[in-house]
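Risk register update: the risk of archive-format incompatibility is retired. Evidence:
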Amino acid sequence: MKRLTFLLLVIMVTFNSCSIKFNGASIPPEMKTLKVDFFENNAQLVVPYLSQQFTEDLKNRIRSQTRLSLTQGDADATIEGRITNYNISPVSLTDNKQFTAGSSKLTITVSAKYTNNLNPKQSFEESFSRSKDFALNGQSLQSLEPQLIKDINVMITEDVFNRAFAQW
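Archived output:
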């Protein structure tokens, strides 16, 4: 019994000294604050609420998956950027004579710049693009668009988050 207790104690001490994060984030302990600037929509096709929703989705991901405090002033790191592309294109056609779209694809591209003021080598500027196929099936694009945007935002915010904090 003493051996088992000793073994458990060794395992607990070993894991207690390690920094294990199940969300994949590896944020240095000295990093305390992060500033997320508003992501302006510079795409040719502009959805009025996309900038606000993307910015808030990114902030929510950071709030829920890190211990960092979001601030509007000076911060240990900053994420800024812009939406550079919002495009809807046909994926398949249903009729050779009328060229009716059977399914379409919504693509959103975001250019993000991460500045790590504590370790500038980890800073980056990169574009992230994700898309999702959809079929109208008698529905309007306006009725499907909010959920499509939400789904794509989840993917892009995950990409930006992982690039900034997981260093994969």
